[in-house]
């Protein structure tokens, strides 16, 4: 969840990638018609164990917002609240309100997701939220899931415990994993401050408003036993402001400890700079005192419970950079241990660190103990290259920085890579912005190229729901959260997707077919998932970018991209032993031109995959 100063809401195919990963012979994916089939929902212990043994880099992740993906149960559209817009939050004509999608809908459409080649489904938060919140001139609903009141329950707009369990079991029966988006930084906006009850309060920092004084350095002493480190010794929360819980909301949150203001920072609005990035409220959202042992253990118990109860396979962690490192140093090992105890040795944890500098994102793998973070640097670089805004050497520089991560290339191999999301906007939007005069064919080719860069580079490809249907939208936040079905929201309904209009959940959409082909190739070629990556060619203008994926046996798979609108012909350096070649995708020469030199020709805005063969 990215929040600015404003208050913002944040196929079944013939053969799937999961089948290939299980060891079936590689066959072409032939995406046919839209389907809505519920496959068997049970799996054998051996099959479940095999799924859990898969390392993160074997996955293709599909990220979706349940509210916008599929409505499997219209009876929960109002979430059990009064059927009034400002009570239930349901208004399918407004980008910032609930639209009716739910967990049952995701379960019913797993065939569609798997037909695309995805092997893991990442769900935006499914926990119970405060349905509607208002600040100033803005009113919105919690369709995104980031305004949590009950961390232990499924939001009634999305279903219930049975629906959650059914989804996980159905996914596992197909060999698919389920990742949850979790939040430890904040809760819904409940707490108010006496000094500014009807507006957002300015941030008050630790130096001017220390924990040991009431209302500033000149105030009366409070929390006299506090030593600056042991936050369990705080007894009063009114060092900066005087927090209170409005009447009627005293028990709004679950677990019960969340209702006590002593467990929050209570310092006012974040400016997203300096210490306020850690201790400030996000647009009024109550910022948890994550230095407090009660909060640390409470969050371990909450999210460990979700692993134990449902057998979840991984967590994407929201707002990772806005929590102190010591919290993550305790929380992450505890989650990995809970997962191992559940028989999940490859539990995938990755944090949201919204920054395009790999020096910043890498820090969280070294200091905060994150196994992985979302690869925001890749997102910007890959989109800029595919859009023609940057030379291909930008990718070379990005991958050279992999050494900064905790385990270097091994950590980089499990970073989820992506092209856009629910906060920043879609890849189609970025490509259109960069190429305002391009026709649909060029835009479509550039978006395909961006997906190829993601699918065949190091990392874990992460698809944003709807991109496969050609959704582009008009920007970030609500404009990038289209309904997958025939929408009643005017801005969604009026959009002409890249590649033209198709039926909802069409498996004939050009991008769906293109991504499914990429996923089949990736699943069939182990080097494209596990091979050590070496950049072979790059330049300071749009054109050739080439990487080799080298396996442990000395085999080489060469992936070549052309980000220019003209064909590229070149000699590319390869391993000296790579003399004979075969085509994986495109027209590949059968022989090297000379030891360590291979001739390639790549069509405009296209890619080529060539594989060396034993002598």
Question: What is the secondary structure topology, with strand pairs?
Answer:
Layout: H1 17-21, H2 45-53, E1 61-64, H3 66-69, H4 85-88, H5 103-108, H6 110-115, E2 120-123, E3 127-129, E4 132-135, E5 138-141, E6 148-154, H7 161-173, E7 177-182, E8 192-193, E9 243-244, H8 276-279, H9 293-310, E10 314-317, H10 325-341, E11 348-351, H11 358-366, E12 372-373, H12 376-387, H13 393-400, H14 409-412, E13 416-418, H15 427-434, H16 440-456, E14 460-464, H17 490-493, H18 510-524, H19 527-530, E15 532-537, E16 544-550, E17 556-562, E18 568-573, E19 580-585, E20 597-602, E21 607-613
Helix pairs in contact: 9-10, 12-15, 12-16, 15-16, 16-18
What keyword list fits this structure?
615 residues; alpha/beta; TIM Barrel; 21 strands
Q: How would you describe the overall organization of this protein?
A:
By secondary structure, the chain is α/β, with parallel strands linked by helices. It is 27% helix and 16% strand. The strands form 6 sheets. Strands 12-11-10-7-2-1-14-13 form an 8-stranded parallel sheet. Strand 15 (532-537) and strand 16 (544-550) form a beta hairpin. Helix 12 packs across helix 15 (427-434). The protein is globular and about 80 Å long. The protein starts with 16 loop residues before the first helix and ends with a strand. Residues 3-37 have low confidence and may be disordered.
In short:
By secondary structure, the chain is of the alpha/beta class. Helix 15 packs across helix 16 and helix 16 packs parallel to helix 18.
How would you state the average pLDDT, rounded?
Answer: 93
With strands numbered from the N-terminus, the spatial order across the biggest sheet is 12-11-10-7-2-1-14-13
Strand content bin: 15-25%
Assigned CATH architecture of the largest domain = Alpha-Beta Barrel
- Secondary structure: number of strands: 21
The CATH superfamily of the largest domain is known as: Glycosidases
- Provide the structure class: alpha/beta
